[in-house]
Specification:
Layout (H helix, E strand, L loop, with lengths): L4 H11 L6 H10 L11 E4 L6 E5 L2 E5 L6 E2 L12 H9 L13 E5 L4 E7 L4 H11 L4 E7 L5 H11 L4 H11 L15 H10 L7 E4 L4 E3 L4 H10 L7
Parallel strand pairs: 6-7
Antiparallel strand pairs: 1-2, 2-3, 3-4, 5-7, 6-8, 8-9
Helix pairs in contact: 1-3
Length: about 240
Amino acid sequence: MLKKGVFAGLLLLAGSVMAETAQEQAVKKLVEPRLGDGVKVDSVVKTPYSGLFEVRVGGDIIYTDEKAQFLFVGNVVDAKSGTNYTRNRVEELNKIKFSDLPLDSALKMVKGDGKRVIAVFEDPNCGYCKRFRKTLASLDNVTVYTFMYNILSEDSVAKSKNIWCSSDRNKAWDEWMLSGKMPTATAPANCVTPHDKVYALGRKLNVNGTPAVFFTDGTRIPGAVDAKTLEEKFASIGQAPKR
C-alpha cells in the first residue's frame, strides 16, 4: 500500500518546473539509448514512490530504477483509494490552453445553447471517429469544433478537402461521417484548406490517434468515448447540463 504522502508528493511532482538534478540527468543518459533508435526522452523526474524515476517520452510515461536496469510500463495506482497517479500525471502533462487552439481552422457545430464546448481531432477515414460522431449527435447544448486531422491516408486529405470546400462544411462532414455520403462536387483546385496547419498542430499536441477530444479545462480524452463518459467529464469541469 502506498503511503499517504505519496499523493501530495505526486502533486508536487506534477507542478514542478525545476531543472533536472544530477541524478535525474544520469538516469536520462542511461535510459534513453535503451528505449530504441530515434526515441528521445523529454524529461526524467524522481518520483515519491518506491525509488522509481518517471521517464517522459512525448505524452507518454514509463518508469525505471536509478540504474535504468528495468523499465516499468503501466499505471501506478493507490491500492487504497484507487487513485491512478500515472493517468493523472499524463493528463497534467498533456494539458493545453484551449483558448490557443486555432478554431478558425475547425468546423463549428452548435446545438442548443452551445455552452458546453469541446474540440475534436478526427480523420474522415477513421471508423472510431464515425462512431463517436453518432455519440455527439445524441448530445445537446454543445459546441463542437472539429479539426480534420488527416493521418490515415492521402485519401483522407482528399476527402477533407472536398468537405472543407463545400458550401456547407458541417452538413457535408456529418453526411459523410454518419451516412457515408461525400459531396458530389469536387473541390476546386484553388480552394485552400487548413490541412498543413491542423496536421502540425496535432503533432505539436501529441495527437497520435483519432478521435481525440479536448475540453475547455485543457484536458483530453483519447478514443471514441460514450455519451455517459462525456457527460461525466462535462460535470467534472462545471459544465453539467441544465435541469
